[in-house]
Amino acid sequence: SRERIASRVASSGDHVAHCRLSAAAMAPRPAALLLAFALSGGATARRAQVAEELVSAAASGQSAAAPSEAAGGVAVALGIDVEAEKEKCSKLTHCYCTKGTSCGWCETTGKAMLGASGGPMDADHCPDWITWAEDCPVLYCNDGEGSEVQWWLHCGWLPALCLVIRVALTIWRRMLAKAHEISTEDLETLNAVNFATGQAMCTENAPSDEELRGQQYAMRWGVDFFGTMRTFEAFRKGMTCPEEERLPTTVTRPYELNLSHLSCPAGEKYDSARVGPHCFWATLKVAILWRSALGATLASGAMCMLASSLYIMFLRNAARYMEQTQYSYLALMTKEIGAVVGPLQVAVSMLLSFYALNRIAWYWTVLMGGHTVQGRCHDLAMLGGAIKKDTDEDWQARYMLYRYLTVALFFGYQPMAPTLRFMGFGPLVKCGLLEKDEAQILSTAHRGPGTVTEAWLSAWVEAHLDGEIRQQSFHALRELRNSIQVVQALLEQRAPVSFESLLFCVVYFLVMVLPLSPSNVDYGNRQAVMEGPHIATVFGVFIICSFYLALIHMLRHLQAPFDNIGAPHDALNPISLFNDTERKLRDYLTLPPSPAVQAPPAEK
């Protein structure tokens, strides 16, 4: 007891700990107890002086007074009303009510008494004496009317706040969903495409009305490509073509959206050649957009936060109402769950890091594959533009190459873009890229129309080119076919089912366990568990769970990089690629000869 008193006094900055210990060892017992009680209220100058005098008298043998007289003398010297303190102690009904008072608790009699670490002041012996309130078997104190109401308000405000946040996020996300809602007819059509697993699989033998609605939706989505009418007359005008007959120079959205596009201030044009100023709030606004990774998982993270706050409230009530032995079992169980979470987080971090890095690298490969395909089309058009254009037949041959290259690019990306899968040959005929008899032939292909257009390109090179240009053109055509095939093959690249299911299950299990293992909480200290709201712990669960769920959401949707419905901000836009490629094809195939280039002299 003396050592415990010394540690408590030293921790509070009391410099008369030596006086207290000496008094407890040498002075008469009631006087020593009263001195310890008096000094427990704080080390004032007067109390220190009285303590030193009492210790000196006891050490020199001059204290001959009876114990009760010595106690009374100490009380008078310290200005303490002992009877008032005793009456105050007698009104306490629970052990924990002695907190902040001069009373202790005798568990044997179930009463509060004036005393100190050595025992009660008026009793010779109490077998089960409790000096400090935190050592009580139950940390419960009903010290007046309204105390229980105050406790539940103190204990329940954080779960109530988490519930409000969860409901607010749910309402907000539903409002966003309504703002981005697709029409009922379009939804019926798009139900034929499964976006749930990132595998955009189009159902076969779709009814004609669904096919028509799908084409209408694709036409609205790809108006930059399908909204322009191509004609041979406009093509032959070349660079003298009027503005209203030219292809659009801008698109609704670029091939790839990035953070700078979405965070660019209103009224400013995005410039890829420079990096704008970084703003946290602008970045956060982008992060919580509709169907972005973090925005899509905020409501789930808030649910984890709510679960964590409820479990914290349960622990606080357990520390208050359960006996120390029973509570120790609960604390041990929570520690054991926390011991599982640590290694589990390490495993999840390793798996996610490996998978995320490889998936992002794969996404960039698919992105750059589009530019490679674009470059191969330009190579072939540049070589094909070397043929003569003296007659109408020459211009017809150029126009044919222009159309075949454009539709070959379209058919190469059609299987990869879920929205374009509903696009038949009709819209291509309407916009001038296909003729009706050509569409009829393409519809009979065994594997797909892309194969037929590649064969048509090969036949065009054989018929209209010769010499070294023909050889280089065949090489460029071979590279074009290969680059399209590489991009299509990349979309078939998936992680093994066992690995992917293991990764997702481990992350979900970790997210479910995190609310049951609050970090940085000393479960053994019942008083700290009961009195603290643990706001940082609960909010930390929200951040960690949202982070893990956002990663899973991103990795799942990146598997379909052209899915503009499942992940509209991360999806690549092939329409922009078509538009940019087609404009350059026209330049290569309609460019007038340079005045500086002289024709070779005729042979004699």
Walk me through this protein's architecture.
- 62% of the residues lie in helices and 2% in strands.
- It has 24 helices and 4 strands.
- It has helices at residues 2-11, 17-26, 29-39, 45-60, 67-78, 82-90, 147-179, 184-190, 208-221, 223-226, 232-237, 259-263, 280-287, 293-321, 324-384, 392-413, 426-430, 436-442, 449-464, 467-491, 497-513, 526-531, 535-557, 574-590, and strands spanning 103-106, 111-116, 119-120, 129-130.
- The N and C termini lie far apart (124 Å).
- The model is unreliable at 8-31, 39-44, 62-69 and 192-207 (pLDDT under 50).
Write the layout of secondary structure elements.
Blueprint: H1 2-11, H2 17-26, H3 29-39, H4 45-60, H5 67-78, H6 82-90, E1 103-106, E2 111-116, E3 119-120, E4 129-130, H7 147-179, H8 184-190, H9 208-221, H10 223-226, H11 232-237, H12 259-263, H13 280-287, H14 293-321, H15 324-384, H16 392-413, H17 426-430, H18 436-442, H19 449-464, H20 467-491, H21 497-513, H22 526-531, H23 535-557, H24 574-590
> Roughly what fraction of the amino acids lie in strands?
under 5%
| Helix-strand topology string | HHHHHHEEEEHHHHHHHHHHHHHHHHHH
The CA-CA distance between the termini, in Å, is 124 Å
Helix fraction by DSSP (H/I, runs of at least 4): 55-70%
Number of strands: 4
Segments where pLDDT lies below 50 for 5+ residues?
8-31, 39-44, 62-69, 192-207
* Order of strands, widest sheet: 3-2-1-4
The mean pLDDT is: 78
Features:
4 strands; 604 residues; 4-stranded antiparallel beta sheet; mainly alpha; rod-shaped
